[in-house]
């Protein structure tokens, strides 16, 4: 596994994970879901390091999800631990996150204790070490080129996302986030917790389209009228239904329709809305209006809502 091994540590989660993905590619489709335990126990050989991870084990924690720490009896070794009570998908993501700390940050600290909030928080990859470790995990478990092939071959539906989540051994939510990151279609993912918008993310093409969510200036951010998200009699809609785009986005031209999917989680009071949007010119561009920042972006900037 050593040919091409880097001499210095990678600086971002994405780059480091892409490098490992490249090494694993010759193993073909059988490499999924990625065996993170094995990777963790052999990572020191890939990086020619003398401080191996020597133990990967489950722990009975309530307050944290994962930990990477020096072996108390031998400071040359690392131990990787994860919350035993978590689902196998969550365990895999946590282990990959801790492996990210080993690859990227082991010079900085001797112990990393990581909580659940980091799993879905914004992962620009530059902001902090938690975001970098998340990005590493996401890219390692769901490599972009592989995911792209899956979603280019047909229509994106929640059924497809669910199949892919099983294939990669990740949670449905983690898979949704990755699909939206990678797709070349304008797509927006919205999280509702207890009927209130918690966060949203959008694909790059959706960002370029500068769509503004139909959000009131001071919240509360409840599902917009006449959308699937607002229809309490529909709990699941995996294929999606056509909805006028301006029900969601105030600057969408009249007559444009988007496809709205809905997933209601049984375990949590959480609803995910996935919107696949046609490529149209937003009204501000068409009418020569000056582009203004997105209303919801401003909510996020002002710190009212956690960013994804
Ligand atoms: Zn962490």
Strand order of the largest sheet: 6-5-9-8-7
Helix content: 25-40%
pLDDT < 50 runs, ≥5 residues: 1-10, 118-126, 288-308
Report the mean per-residue pLDDT as an integer. 85
Rg from alpha-carbon coordinates: 21 Å
Large-scale geometry:
elongated
How would you describe what is shown here?
The protein has helices spanning 13-24, 36-46, 88-105, 129-141, 144-152, 158-168, 172-182, 204-209, 283-286, 295-301, and strands at residues 53-59, 66-71, 74-83, 111-114, 187-193, 196-202, 236-244, 257-264, 270-276. With 308 residues, it is an alpha+beta fold. The protein folds into 2 domains: 13-141, Arc Repressor Mutant, subunit A; 161-301, Beta-Lactamase, CATH 3.30.450. It has a 5-stranded antiparallel β-sheet. A 4-stranded mixed β-sheet has the order 1-3-2-4. Strand 2 (66-71) and strand 3 (74-83) form a beta hairpin. Helix 1 (13-24) packs parallel to helix 4 (129-141), helix 3 (88-105) crosses helix 4 (129-141) and helix 6 (158-168) crosses helix 7. It is elongated, with a radius of gyration of 21 Å. The structure holds zinc ion.
Descriptive labels:
disordered N terminus; alpha+beta; binds zinc ion; five-stranded antiparallel sheet; four-stranded mixed sheet; Beta-Lactamase; 21% strand; 308 residues; single chain; Arc Repressor Mutant, subunit A; 10 helices; elongated; disordered C terminus
């Amino acid at each position: 596994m050593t040919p091409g091994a880097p001499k210095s540590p990678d600086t971002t989660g994405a780059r480091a994970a892409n490098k490992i993905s490249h090494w694993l590619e010759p193993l073909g489709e059988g490499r999924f879901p990625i065996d993170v335990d094995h990777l963790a126990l052999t990572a020191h050989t890939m990086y020619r390091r003398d401080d191996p991870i020597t133990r990967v084990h489950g722990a009975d924690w309530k307050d944290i999800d994962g930990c990477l720490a020096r072996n108390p009896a031998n400071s040359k070794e690392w131990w990787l631990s994860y919350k035993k009570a978590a689902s196998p998908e969550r365990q895999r993501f946590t282990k990959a996150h801790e492996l990210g700390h080993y690859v990227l940050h082991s010079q900085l600290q001797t112990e990393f204790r990581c909580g659940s909030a980091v799993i879905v928080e914004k992962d620009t990859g530059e902001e902090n070490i938690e975001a970098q470790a998340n990005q590493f995990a996401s890219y390692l478990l769901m490599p972009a080129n592989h995911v792209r092939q899956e979603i280019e071959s047909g229509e994106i539906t929640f059924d497809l996302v669910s199949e892919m989540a099983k294939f990669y051994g990740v949670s449905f939510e983690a898979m949704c986030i990755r699909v939206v990151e990678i797709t070349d279609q304008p797509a927006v993912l919205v999280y509702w917790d207890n009927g209130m918008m918690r966060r949203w993310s959008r694909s790059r093409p959706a960002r370029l389209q500068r769509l503004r969510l139909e959000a009131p200036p001071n919240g509360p951010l409840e599902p917009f009228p006449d959308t699937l998200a607002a229809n309490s009699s529909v709990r699941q809609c995996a294929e999606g239904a056509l909805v006028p785009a301006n029900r969601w986005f105030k600057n969408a031209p009249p007559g444009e329709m988007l496809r709205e999917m809905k997933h209601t989680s049984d375990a949590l009071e959480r609803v995910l809305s996935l919107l696949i949007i046609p490529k149209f010119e937003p009204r501000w561009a068409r009418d020569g209006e000056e582009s203004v920042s997105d209303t919801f972006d401003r909510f996020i900037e002002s710190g009212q809502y956690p960013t994804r």
